[in-house]
Write a structure and sequence with these properties.
single chain, 37% helix
Length: 1912
């Protein structure tokens, strides 16, 4: 029984003590005046009576009623029912408050309380003060309170004849039962009657209609988010203008949380004075009057629910986790069915007539039933995760959160995780975990209805029925007696508050009230205490839990098969069948990713433990440990599946004998897992084991069958049912118990609690002590276990701590790469106050002791161990740890002595002849490097990596050989290697070994041949061996001297660093000659070789020579030297003559003669007709050390002038000719960039030089002369060359000596006209390449051409005397934009500057680095798929650089083709210049596209002209800092792009380019060593001695090697080679047309890079073809793996296949095999004869149909005139309009001429110009677009229907054309075309009307036709 009301209080308005406008509440009277002993008077009632503050009112308001809730210090709730009414202010009070009444008026209006009814009229200045009757109670009977206070007010207002004292006294003495569904009628003695019903069970909350109202006000989604917010401990604030609504909303929200109790701040109505409570950091549910909304908006982390507006506002920083699916959506749909039953029927055609809508009270219960069901589903099976830690004297219960989440499959779920960690759930466990107590609706639901709820999930009607049944029960609980007699309580009459009250509320007589109370108390003392016996029972556990969503394990679907594999493997291990076990192991390790397999493993292993011990041999031990590690690596720190728990007893059971008396247990090998360092894991394990032992205490000995559960501790989390009823190991918490009568720990506890009161005191004491000692002994046991798993085997290593201290956050828990060691995590998260983390040398032991002590403290305190016992434990822990460390020392010592496990045999790599091993194989694992194919990527295929093997370091390469660690791949050998010289980056890494998952040191080596070795060293490789490997690698990569490189040490007996043996010279050999040469050069240099070079080639002795910067630039060539430099050849000294002859034999010299660029003649007997000559001026390398010995210079320039010219250029690299066009006779020159002085002198001195000119000016004058000489030496300018200087230049009339229509100077009739033309010539910002078009609009400037804009250049006709044309310069100088700034163009327009922006070498270097990273990332991509590769490729900007190079080259090609010469003068003249010049020659001259020609090109432009291979390739220690810059590789990439676009123009195959790309960095050959010919001579590399006997195996030169190899195999030959003579290639250069070179991306793991041909095995034999046993061949099929096999070799192309076949057949026939080239040539010749039935020769073009033809002729045109009409119609004719190639080359070409001639179209060879034109038909016919072809050879204009049409539709003979004139549009002409695009062609027969697509192309057509006419 309990008092209905504890206190009755009367509170009235009083003035504020500090005189502020607000009043304050004053308690006038309170009854009883003394506090009850059990219930002190609550403080602060006066605040809560008027939550908005005490204020006077100008009118009389109707009375109000609400219930506020106060919570006292013991979390008891007091309900304060407040009834407020207004009374007129007495004059005394009025005086006190008059001064601020006005201010209060406004406030009262705003407060919203005054607006409840129309105001009562009163005297104009009358004020009313509030007075409140308050009833304080601990019971929640709102209606009774409303009636009782209403009765007191009615008696007062209506003046009833009843003593108020009696009523108050009766109210205070009224006793009612707490619960149990009783009914009680009470009367307060005023003729009233009330019936009080108590709820059936006290634990269910009373909600009346509050939940239904809450849903009405806020809606489903909002209430659900408030529900989740309250559960996950967020702050919730309700706003409303009504206090009653605030109380109801808070009450409703709390009712929804049942069975959890809200345990934080709960204030349904918060007074205004306490608003600062809202900024408290703790969670709360608070209601506030809507008037204070502004204050609420300032709060950043509070969820605000506005009841009046129906909104819920969640701040941005707050995340409310939603319910887990599918519960969220199910709950939502059920709620909508309850709240809006008509929704389902809204779409029916014939809706039922009426719907019975539940009453509000019933709907309230239905909504609560939905949430009750939700909790039953969420917490289903929770009792299976309870641990009974103590039973007596009070139950201590712990909840195993991890197991619960794991079983429910909700480990990742944010919502449930937060709920389980919250305070409400902790209260739920301690309240509901108790096994013996009264049960309620929730217990029944969660135990018995779960199956029904699962079954009903998809049947909404059945769900609704269940909800209604539950709602009935809830309703019945609140209203046990529905048909109660009605209350009878008097109420005041209508508008009674407006009547003038007879008097104020009277002061009651305290004595009377107190007397009534005392009377009642005396009566009570006499009566016996009415104790209602609570019905206590054992709480049912319900079915075992299941996952909320059945997640089908797609990955491990066939788990039965997997489990069988695991079982078999374990049985093989224990039967000693190690080979079988080894085969299964990879499959087992893969299977162990699945939970079932991991549990199966633990169960199986448990079967092999006898008496807590299982001694294994070394191999078995190794297998078991590996499987355990694999199991544990995926365990999170929570171990929600109980795997670590199951393995914990096993790691202390499995062991091996290391030596007599020394045993190693498995725990020393499985410590590297995060779970061991997680305190929660140990606590859960400890409680589980304690529960098992406590249970065993109370079971009869007979029942307790399994000794294990007592002595050995349990396995698995709770091992079976609630509290582990079964000793069967390894059943997870939450699983069904085994059948039988065994009782669970909860059952035992329930029984014991029932018996407890009946036991004697002694017996109780004894049980308590037994339990305590059980807990104590388990604590000792766990201290031992923890020290086992936390102390590392080598305890001397505090490295564990230092390295891993950062991992304390346990973030890596979900990571499968387990890196935590326990001690590390302890360090940071659990011991911050000890200052441990910064104590460097802190020992492991101390950390472990602290960790264990913290654990012991926590569990013992919670389990009620006495403080004495606890102290004892603290003393024991350090001893336990120390003892364990001592045992470990012996184990560690002995384990080091173990013979290593048999590892796979190391496979020795094959070496090249002369290659020696520097370091023998170090055992390593090769890890995947981010290229997905090798690791079984998207294309499928086997996981070749990671592979286990060894890394070897030889004098030439770094080689890995090994086998994949995945045995399912088979016995495949994996090889990855790269030349030491190609190493670009080496960094140390720390990685896991793939097999044991141990953290090991590793190395990552990246090479510029696009190989990456990412290696983890095996544990047997000591750190010193790894360090030695690094040092040796570094030494080989960067030898101190170039002589130390592989190419130079190869085949010579001396080792690098030792001086070579002196060889006796026989006569003046080449060796001595080269020595003399160098000596002379040095002498000369010593005297006069002055440069301003930044770069000095490294010299072999340190010469004492002043640095060039110190000397001025004014030393001219000394006079006495001239004769010796320029003596005719007859006067050369013998050694000089030998030098000359050796120079003449050089490649470039042969090439100059081929190009007709002059012969080597003496200065006296020069052939004057030759415009150029070969000058030996640099034969001593005196003028320019990086140039070749022989140079092509203009005939007119004396050798002694060259010295002066060279000073104007960087590195003294003055302009020299390197190629001449056979057709237009234009020349290509190259030089270094200009020096400032020279340029200024050349271009800025417009006025005549003054007499006192300086030396610098004279050298610029020389330079002017030099350029003039170049211009004059071109045939078309020969006449106009003037008298030596530019000032004397006058324009001459065009003579009749012009050799061809292209070679043309546009001369102007007088100088005035020349200047006029100069003014009008369009000039772009970079200067323009002038077209000889008619209109200025047609000449686009070079700059815009380079940017890829502007129309193609107009190809003009020869000049008519009537036209003034802008002229095209004779020489274009392509220079660096930065260098040519401020330079004025040449006044006479003979040469023109074309400034372009080029990238520098450092940009190439940076770009290449990124390209390497893109192609070989080094670690797996974050987002797999092609997108990330393409993105990083774009970032590298490599293709953009290729694009720029091709663009500039095509521009130069066009200029040369149009008859202008070009000087390329960029940077120092040895990087980009070389790239551009080589590409230009390759595009312009078909000779360079042959094998021989390409070699010549590289030797001439790259080697002789001094590209700095050693510097750019960082070959020596000196170049280490500059790094690798792949300038030559970039050139090869450009060639590859051209090769792709013109596959039939190249004699060499793409493999040839890759081969050079690989070997120019490999340092295997001497070809690409050093920076210039001078350095090569100095080292004696350039001229090999003729008589010297060379070692046959060592190819010194890459060309020699290619030649040898080409004889044996066609690997470098391109079968599609079928060139068109004199074809100038114009490739597309846009980035979209470029492809990534497969050299960068492909790799062959079967044998490493395929570029060392000796190492790659020959072409594979057809498998199983000729087997020795003579059996029939089985199968011809062969699996080709991506990234493993070399596809071209496994699947050769048809021609290679046939050649192989021929060789095989010849061998079989016993013939000597024929060379492949001869066979190929024979086939081609035969093909040619077959193709000539009519005897007419057809052009030699392989597969050239009309479509490829267009591809050939596309590109950008710049030519002015037509192609020379000497174009041979067939390659069989001996005319050659291109280069004067040797006859053998011609013959070789001819042999290809007729192949595939049947695909040839008749006209394809004669298309000089083509395009689309609109043509007006004959009279009355429409305009039509046709494809026109201008054929200059047949002299006709043909047209076709479309571009690929082979049938000609009509011909206009150009012989009949009279004129070409601009036309005008006629009727039916295309509308969108400009008028100027029309032109007419007038023939003798008719006028043809044409229209081009735009003006420029019309102009071009006109020019082309004109030029054709003039040719005729």
């Amino acid at each position: 029984m309990a008092r209905l009301a504890d206190y009755f209080v009367l509170v009235a308005f009083g003035p504020h003590p500090r005189g502020s406008g607000e009043g304050q509440g004053q308690i006038l009277q309170r009854f009883p005046e003394k506090d009850w002993e059990d219930n002190p008077f609550p403080q602060g009632i006066e605040l809560f009576c008027q939550p908005s503050g005490w204020q006077l009112c100008p009118e009389r308001n109707p009375p109000t009623f609400f219930v506020a809730v106060l919570t006292d210090i013991n979390s008891e709730r007091h309900y304060c029912a407040c009834l407020t009414f207004w009374e007129p202010v007495e004059p005394t009070q009025e005086g006190a408050c008059a001064r601020d009444a006005a201010a209060r008026d406004e406030e009262a209006d705003e407060g919203g309380l005054g607006a409840l009814s129309p105001p009562a009229p009163g005297p104009p200045d009358q004020l009313f003060a509030p007075k409140t009757l308050v009833l304080v109670s601990r019971l929640d009977h709102v209606e009774v309170f409303r009636n009782s206070l209403g009765l007191i007010y009615t008696i007062h207002v209506e003046g009833l004849n009843v003593g108020l004292e009696n009523v108050v006294g009766n109210l205070l003495t009224c006793l009612i039962p707490l619960a149990g569904g009783s009914q009680r009628t009470i009367s307060l003695g005023a003729g009233d009657r009330q019936v009080i019903q108590t709820p059936l069970t006290d634990s269910l909350p009373i909600s009346r209609c509050s939940v239904a109202l809450l849903f009405r006000q806020l809606g489903i989604t909002n209430v659900l988010s408030l529900f989740c917010a309250a559960l996950t401990e967020h702050k919730v604030l309700f706003l409303s203008r009504s206090y009653q609504r605030l109380s109801d909303a808070c009450r409703g929200l709390l009712a929804l949380l049942f069975p959890l109790r809200y345990s934080f701040t709960y204030v349904p109505i918060l007074p205004a004075q306490l608003l600062e409570v809202l900024s408290t950091p703790t969670p709360f549910i608070i209601g506030v009057n809507a008037a204070f909304q502004a204050e609420a908006q300032e709060l950043l982390d509070v969820i605000v629910a506005d009841l009046d507006g129906g909104t819920v506002t969640v701040p941005e920083c707050v995340h409310i986790p939603p319910l887990p699916e599918p519960l969220q959506s199910q709950t939502h749909s059920i709620l909508s069915m309850v709240l809006d039953p008509e929704l389902e029927l809204a779409d029916l055609a014939f809706p039922p007539p009426t719907m019975s809508i539940s009453s509000l009270k019933m709907q309230d219960k239905e909504l609560r039933a939905v949430f009750l069901r939700l909790f039953a589903q969420l917490l289903q099976g929770y009792r299976w995760c309870l641990h009974m830690v103590r039973i007596h004297p009070e139950p201590v219960i712990r909840f195993h959160k991890a197991a619960f989440l794991g079983q429910r499959g909700l480990v990742e779920d944010d919502f449930l995780m937060k709920v389980l960690e919250g305070m409400a759930f902790a209260g739920f466990v301690s309240e509901r975990g108790v096994p013996y107590r009264p049960t309620d609706l929730f217990d029944e639901l969660v135990a018995h209805e779960v199956a029904r709820m699962r079954a009903d999930e998809n049947h909404p009607q059945r769900v609704l029925r269940h909800v209604k049944e539950l709602a009935e029960q809830l309703y019945k609980n609140e209203n046990p007696y529905p048909a109660v007699a009605m209350h009878k309580v008097q109420r005041p009459g209508e508008a009674s508050h407006l009547r003038r009250a007879p008097r104020p509320f009277p002061r009651l007589d305290e004595g009377v009230v107190q007397w009534i109370v005392d009377q009642a108390a005396a009566k009570m003392q006499g009566a016996p205490p009415a104790v209602k016996a609570e019905k206590r029972t054992t709480v049912p556990s319900g079915p075992p839990m299941t996952a909320i969503v059945e997640r089908s394990g797609g990955l491990h679907g066939n788990s039965a098969r997997r489990l069988e594999v695991v079982r078999n493997c374990i049985s093989y291990v224990f039967e000693g069948k190690m080979l079988e076990a080894k085969k299964l192991l990879p499959a087992v390790l893969r299977a162990l990713k699945g939970r079932a397999a991991r549990r199966c493993l633990a169960q199986e292993l448990h079967l092999h433990v006898q008496q807590n011990r299982a001694v294994l041999d070394h191999q078995q031990f190794d297998f078991v440990v590996r499987m355990m590690n694999c199991c544990l690596q995926d365990c999170t720190s929570l171990d929600e599946h109980g795997i670590a728990a199951a393995l914990l007893p096993l790691v202390t059971a499995f062991c091996r004998k290391l030596s007599p008396g020394v045993t190693q247990f498995a725990y020393s090998c499985v410590q590297e897992h995060v779970v061991w360092s997680t305190p929660q894991f140990w606590e859960a394990m400890f409680y589980g084991d304690v529960q098992t032992h406590i249970r065993a205490l109370y079971l009869e000995p007979a029942e307790d069958r399994d000794p294990f559960s007592v002595c050995g501790g349990s396995l698995g989390w709770g091992m079976g049912g609630p509290g582990s009823r079964s000793p069967v190991p390894l059943r997870q918490v939450g699983e069904a118990p085994p059948q039988g009568d065994e009782r669970s720990a909860l059952d035992v506890a329930s029984e014991q609690r029932r018996l407890w009161p009946t036991l004697s005191r002694e017996k109780q004491q004894e049980l308590v002590q037994k339990e305590e000692s059980t807990v104590f002994s388990q604590a000792i046991h766990y201290a031992n276990r923890m020290s086992y798993l936390l102390l590392p085997l080598d305890s001397s290593k505090s490295r564990l701590l230092r390295e891993r201290a950062g991992l304390g956050e346990l973030e890596s828990a979900s990571n499968s790469l387990v890196t935590n060691s326990m001690a590390g995590s302890v360090a940071e998260s659990y011991d911050t106050e000890s200052g441990f983390e910064d104590a460097e040398a802190c020992d492991v032991a101390g950390a472990v002791v602290r960790f264990i002590n913290r654990f012991v403290d926590k569990v013992c305190t919670e389990s009620g161990v006495t403080s004495d016992h606890l102290k004892g434990l603290h003393v024991m822990v350090p001893d336990i740890v120390q003892m364990h460390i001592e045992t470990l020392e012996a184990v560690h010592r002995e384990s080091k002595r173990l013979p290593p496990i048999q590892k796979p045999k190391l496979l020795r790599p094959r070496l090249l002849p002369g290659e020696e091993c520097v370091l023998d194989g170090l055992r390593v694992y090769l890890l995947p490097d981010g290229r997905e194919e090798g690791a079984g990527g998207p294309g499928g295929g086997p996981a070749l990596l990671p592979a286990e093997g060894a890394v070897f370091l030889t004098t030439y390469r770094v080689i890995f050989t090994g086998m994949p660690t995945d045995p399912l791949v088979g016995e495949q050998v994996v090889v990855r290697s790269f030349p030491v010289a190609a190493l670009t980056k080496e960094k140390r890494i720390s990685v896991q070994t793939p097999v044991d998952q141990l953290l090991q040191d590793g190395l990552q080596l990246r090479s510029c041949t696009f190989q990456l070795l990412k290696m983890a060293f095996d544990e047997e490789v000591g750190s010193d061996s790894a360090e030695l490997f690094r040092k040796q690698l570094h030494k080989l990569r960067y030898p101190p001297d170039i002589r130390g490189t592989f190419a130079l040490t190869l085949g010579s007996a001396h080792t690098p660093g030792r001086p070579p043996r002196a060889t006796k010279d026989k006569g003046p050999s080449f060796r001595t000659l080269s020595r003399n040469l160098v000596k002379n050069a040095k002498k000369t240099i010593g005297r006069q070789y002055v440069t301003r070079k930044k770069y000095n080639p490294p010299s072999w002795e340190h010469r004492g020579q002043p640095s060039p910067e110190d000397q001025e630039d004014e030393i001219s060539v000394s006079e006495e030297l001239e004769p010796s430099t320029l003596t005719p050849s007859s006067a050369l000294k013998p050694s000089d003559r030998m030098t000359m002859s050796s120079l003449v034999e050089r490649a470039c010299c042969r090439d100059y003669q081929r190009l007709g660029l002059g012969t080597l003649s003496s200065s006296l007997s020069r052939a004057k007709s030759e415009p150029f000559r070969i000058s030996p001026v640099n034969r001593m390398y005196a003028i320019c050390r990086s140039y070749p010995g022989l140079l092509i210079v203009p005939q007119s320039i004396q050798d002694n002038a060259l010295q002066r010219v060279s000073r104007c250029y960087r590195q003294n690299r003055f302009p020299v000719v390197c190629w001449r066009s056979g057709r237009s006779k234009a020349v290509l020159l190259r030089s270094g960039g200009l020096h400032g002085k020279g340029v200024v002198g050349l271009f800025k001195a417009q006025n005549a030089p003054s007499p006192g000119q300086s030396q610098a000016d004279s050298s610029s004058l020389e330079q002017e002369k030099y350029l003039q000489a170049v211009v004059s030496s071109m045939p078309r300018y020969a006449d106009a060359s003037g008298r030596n200087t530019l000032s004397g230049f006058s324009s001459a009339h065009m003579g009749s000596h012009v050799p061809s229509p292209r070679a043309r100077v546009t001369t102007l009739s007088n100088p005035m006209a020349a200047s006029a033309s100069r003014r009008t010539a369009p000039r772009g910002k970079w200067g323009s390449v002038r077209a000889s078009g008619r209109s200025g609009g047609l000449s686009t400037d070079v700059g815009s051409r380079l940017a890829g804009v502007g129309p193609p250049q107009a190809n003009g006709a020869p000049p008519d005397p009537g036209f003034l044309r802008p002229q095209r310069a004779a020489l274009y100088i392509i220079g660096d934009k930065a260098q040519l700034k401020g330079v004025r163009p040449d006044p006479l327009q003979q040469w023109e500057l074309v400034p372009i922006e080029v990238f520098e070498a450092r940009q190439v270097k940076a770009s290449f680095k990124k390209l390497l990273k893109a192609c070989v990332p080094g670690c797996p991509a974050t987002e797999p798929g092609p997108a990330s590769f393409l993105r990083s490729l774009e970032d590298s900007e490599w293709l953009i650089q290729i694009h720029k190079l091709l663009q500039v080259s095509v521009l130069v090609v066009e200029l040369l083709d149009s008859g202008s010469s070009v000087l390329v003068s960029l940077e120092d003249g040895w990087d980009i210049t070389t790239q551009v010049v080589s590409l230009v020659q390759l595009l312009s001259d078909p000779f360079y596209r042959t094998l021989e020609g390409f070699r010549l090109l590289v030797e001439k432009e790259w080697l002789s002209f001094g590209h700095r291979f050693s510097h750019r390739g960082a070959h020596t220690l000196a170049g280490q800092s500059s790094g690798f810059t792949p300038v030559f590789l970039q050139f090869l990439d450009c060639v590859h792009q051209i090769h792709l676009q013109f596959p039939m123009e190249f004699e060499f195959s793409p493999f040839y380019l890759k081969f050079l790309g690989y070997h120019h960095v490999s340092r295997r050959f001497r070809t690409f060593l050093l920076d210039s010919d001078y350095e090569r001579i100095e080292l004696g590399l350039l001229y090999e001695e003729k008589g010297e006997r060379r070692a046959p195996q060592a190819c010194r030169s890459v060309w020699e090697y290619v030649e040898r190899l080409s004889k044996r195999t066609p690997v470098f030959y391109n079968y599609m080679y079928a060139p068109e003579d004199a074809e100038v290639l114009r490739p597309y250069s846009n980035v979209s047309n470029l492809k990534v070179w497969d050299f960068y991306t492909e790799e062959t793991l079967a044998e490493g890079p395929p570029y060392d041909w000796e190492l790659a095995q020959g072409p594979p034999e057809p498998p199983e073809e000729e087997r020795p046993d003579g059996g029939a061949p089985q199968s011809r099929r062969r699996v080709v793996w991506p990234c493993y096999d070399s596809r071209p070799r496994a699947q050769p192309d048809a021609i290679s296949r046939l050649l192989e076949e021929m060789q095989r057949l010849e061998t079989e026939l016993g013939r000597p095999p024929e060379r492949w080239k001869d066979a190929w040539d024979r086939v081609k010749a035969a093909q040619r004869l077959e193709g000539r039935p009519d005897g007419r020769g057809t052009p030699s073009s392989l597969l050239v149909s009309s479509v490829p033809h267009h591809r050939r002729s596309l590109g950008v045109y710049l030519q002015e005139g037509p192609v020379g009409s000497t174009l041979s119609l067939s390659l069989d004719s001996d005319q050659s309009s291109g280069s004067t190639a040797s006859s053998s080359r011609q013959a070789a070409r001819r042999s290809t001429s007729t192949l595939y001639s049947q695909f040839q179209t008749a006209e394809s060879e004669n298309r000089s110009y083509e395009g689309t034109l609109y043509k007006k038909g004959a009279f009355m016919k429409p305009w039509k677009a046709r494809w026109f072809v201008l054929d200059k050879t047949k002299h006709q204009l043909r047209y076709y229907d479309h571009r690929v049409d082979t049938e000609c539709k009509g011909v206009i003979d150009l012989a009949e054309v009279e004129a070409v004139a601009p036309g005008a549009p006629t009727m039916g002409a295309p509308k969108t075309v400009d008028e100027k695009a029309f032109f007419d062609v007038k023939t003798t027969r008719r006028v043809y009307n044409f229209c081009a697509q735009d003006v420029p192309s019309a102009q071009q057509w006109v020019d082309q036709i004109q030029s054709c006419l003039s040719d005729a």
